[in-house]
Design brief:
Layout (H helix, E strand, L loop, with lengths): L1 E4 L3 H9 L5 E2 L7 E4 L2 E4 L5 H11 L6 E10 L9 E10 L6 E5 L4 H13 L4 E8 L7 H8 L5 E3 L2 H10 L3 E10 L20 H10 L4 H26 L15
Parallel strand pairs: 1-4, 1-5, 5-10, 6-8, 8-9
Antiparallel strand pairs: 2-3, 3-4, 5-9, 6-7, 6-10
Helix pairs in contact: 1-7, 2-5
């Protein structure tokens, strides 16, 4: 079995849209689906939900664990829809605390294949360390602070999963699509999403009406989300095609 974690509803929708054979998997506290050899799980936002999921994943004895979603770019060359393949996970205990770096270099063959996918889609791909943050880095200044750790991108879920996978000697593949580049800030006030990253139209409208100064950032974010979701759908289609790295009917790449 291979396990694919896709953190939120906004990210899982384009993935499942390219996996029409995926059926809901019963008995999970979070949304989960299965198709062939591939289990897809939507843990929610942040490191805590991911960590809480590990006791459920470990007894399955997966051969591979993938984490796929979007991220914030921390280098100027990354644009919306570009790909980041993590070679290490960087975590920090907080402001002023030294950052720790956990290497998990992907196999050369995997790097080559994902790079070919990126090239076929007209996307840039960077292999580098990725920062797991306990909070959203919304401003350009916060992103620059994140880049000071040596990371090329930032996300919120990988830390616990990377530590567990490395300790278990599992192949851990952490692939991200850029949602917000370094130079584009996110809305400073967090959107009223639930744990799965969903937001109702009513709550979204209320947020926009009560935060009028954030309209430009909100507009940019929705445009960026459309581009990132389309890129995610294209990437997962390439990964899960017959003979692909995540082909649900194949044994897949072994460590």
């Amino acid at each position: 079995m291979r396990v694919l974690l896709v953190p939120t509803r906004w990210e899982s929708q384009p993935v499942l849209g390219r996996l029409p054979g995926a059926m809901p998997e019963p008995g999970w506290d979070v949304p989960a689906w299965r198709t062939g050899d591939l289990l897809i799980v939507e843990p929610g936002i942040g490191p805590e939900p991911t960590a809480a999921l590990l006791p459920r994943i470990e007894p399955l004895q997966p051969r591979q664990v993938w984490l796929f979603g979007w991220c914030g770019g921390l280098t100027p060359e990354l644009g919306v829809g570009d790909l980041v393949l993590a070679e290490a996970t960087i975590t920090s205990a907080g402001t002023g605390a030294p950052a720790s770096r956990l290497p998990h270099q992907p196999p050369d063959s995997l790097v080559t294949q994902i790079n070919r996918i990126a090239e076929s889609l007209g996307r840039r791909m960077i292999v580098g360390p990725v920062l797991t943050s306990g909070k959203v880095l919304s401003s350009v200044e916060q992103k620059r602070d994140g880049a000071a750790t040596g990371a090329v991108a930032v996300e919120m879920e990988a830390g616990p999963l990377a530590r567990w996978a490395v300790a278990c000697s599992l192949l851990f593949v952490h692939l991200r699509v850029v949602l917000d580049p370094l130079q584009l800030p996110l809305p400073p006030t967090r959107l009223p999403t639930d744990r799965q990253g969903s937001v109702t139209a009513r709550d979204l409208l209320l947020h926009a009406l009560t935060h009028p100064t954030e309209w430009p950032a909100l507009w940019n974010l929705f445009h960026q989300a459309r581009v990132a979701r389309r890129a995610m759908a294209d990437v997962i289609a390439a990964l899960t095609q017959p003979g692909g790295l995540l082909d649900p009917q194949a044994a897949g790449l072994r460590n």
